[in-house]
Specification:
The chain is an alpha+beta fold and 477 residues long. Helix content is 61%, strand content 12%. The protein folds into three domains: 241 residues, no CATH class; 103 residues, no CATH class; 99 residues.
């Protein structure tokens, strides 16, 4: 490696390392602020928290790499331009593209390593980090009950409160508790104006003391005449105590693993999952088609009529109901309406199931392509940052940071919007993953080409002259 290449590489790697670590820390803080309520006050040892943050920080690496490449390349060539090193190098006969060569190879290696990290390390860290977070959040479920949100962490119950207050934040207002222990739906509900929530000293039960409340329960009769009466019971109380078992929340090993989501799989596993999901979707559609065909499909075969029916003429009125007596017309209409409603419900249920499976397949495909597109975005950001640095000729953490933040925010917003459209099936998942970097790629190539050929409009003097001409015309007009 020549001296110039070593110098350029050294000037790039130093800010790259710093900006990469800063961006990982910044993205990690977003996670901490989001889940701070699930981590604080649980009595968890510090090394569990540190281990979980280490896992989560690993998941931010694929997103931190593009902005680190953008900012470090902009700072490197901005510093070269600010200290006239860029002019000296180009005056010696070395082109801008020749200066880019070592960094293009370096960024390509970074992109490939970023893909390997996203494909093999990030799924494991996602899996272990989310499992650890889920187990930590279960340790004290009372702290997870948030105002205005139904909490279903306790098996068999769904709890909603309007407000938490008091010194220990355990006093409640406007409490609603649904009892689902019988698996019969929302047939038993308890409401109360106020209450106090406590955990027993042995951490086996959570007790809620309710005041000024009411219990409503629908009964499930066995006789038909009782079903039409819709029997229920309602009880008012001034004071009541409900005890919830917390045996399911005891976890001796906080590292106990749970199920895997789509973002916890590598690309090979994602493709296997997509093939399995497509096979299930195809089988369900075929089953639906066969079921509907068996119910309402028919083949008209006149030769199969009984011999006694060959010479019989049946007079059928065009109005179907007119072929029945008044008494049977009501029965026919009610049966037809019932069958139509049943079919509509069956169709809506199948449609919802198909849509859910298609969205699940789209999420798997998005995750597969996102691992590659984010790595490719590193190269795109280099071809944007390096020529911009040569144009603005400013190093340090001032102007480069502002430009990098603006460019990356545009890229991130665009990537997030397209990803959401891909998840909702309003856009093809492949296009949703690749459009953001591909839209920025021509910008980077144009900037690189114009900067390498010393285009006039790429210089700051050109924009200053243009601005002076515009302001001069406004004054004269």
């Amino acid at each position: 490696m020549k001296v110039l290449d070593r110098y350029i590489l050294k000037s790039f790697l130093r800010p790259f390392t710093i900006t990469f670590l800063v961006m990982v820390f910044f993205l990690l803080m977003q996670f901490v602020w989001k889940y701070v309520d699930d981590l604080v006050g649980k009595g968890v040892e510090w090394y569990y928290i540190l281990e979980m943050l280490l896992y989560i920080s690993a998941t931010t690496v694929p997103l931190a790499l593009p902005i680190a490449v953008l900012l470090s390349s902009l700072m490197t060539f901005g510093s070269f331009g600010e200290h006239n090193e860029l002019a000296a190098i180009r005056a010696s006969g070395i082109s801008l593209l020749r200066m880019f060569r070592v960094l293009v190879i370096t960024v390509a290696i970074i992109s490939f390593c970023g893909f390997l990290f996203a494909n093999y390390v990030m799924p494991v860290s996602q899996f272990k980090g989310k499992s650890l977070l889920r187990n930590i959040s279960k340790m004290k479920p009372a702290l997870n009950i948030r105002p205005g949100i139904f909490y279903d962490g306790i098996e068999g119950y769904s709890i909603k409160i309007a407000e938490k207050f008091g010194p220990d934040n355990n006093q409640l207002r406007n409490i609603i508790i649904y009892d689902h222990t019988d698996n019969l739906g929302n047939i038993k509900v308890t409401t109360a104006a106020e209450g106090v929530m406590e955990i027993t000293p042995d951490n086996r039960f959570m007790i809620i003391e309710l005041t000024d409340g009411q219990t409503y329960e629908e009964h499930q009769p066995t006789k038909r005449e009782d079903k039409e009466r819709n029997p229920f019971s309602s009880t008012r109380f001034e004071y009541a105590v409900i005890r919830f078992s917390l045996e399911d929340f005891k976890s001796e090993d906080l590292r106990q693993e749970t199920r895997k989501d789509f973002n916890m799989l590598n690309n090979a596993q994602l493709m296997l999952a997509v093939d399995s999901l497509r096979l299930v979707l195809t089988d369900q559609r075929a089953h639906f088609h066969q079921t509907m065909a068996e119910r309402y499909g028919y083949i008209l075969d006149t030769a199969a009529r009984p011999p006694t029916m060959k010479d019989t003429v049946i007079d059928i009125h065009p109005d179907i109901l007119a072929n029945f007596t008044k008494r049977k017309q009501k029965m026919v209409a009610e049966n037809a309406l019932r069958i139509a409603r049943s079919n509509r419900s069956y169709y809506d249920q199948a449609k919802t199931n198909y849509h859910w499976r298609e969205r699940t397949i789209a999420r798997h495909k998005l995750e597969w392509h996102k691992k590659i597109s984010l790595s490719f975005a590193c190269l795109v950001m280099f071809f944007i940052g390096a020529p911009l640095g040569a144009i603005i000729r400013k190093g340090g953490m001032g102007m480069p940071v502002v430009i990098s933040v603006v460019v990356f925010i545009l890229f991130y917003v665009m990537a997030t919007a397209f990803e959401k459209m891909g998840r909702e099936l309003t856009w093809d998942p492949i296009s949703a993953s690749w459009l953001p970097p591909l839209l920025f790629l021509p910008i980077g190539l144009i900037l690189t080409y114009k900067t390498a050929n010393d285009a006039e409009f790429m210089g700051m003097e050109f924009w200053s002259k243009l601005w002076r001409k515009i302001t001069f015309r406004k004054k004269n007009s």
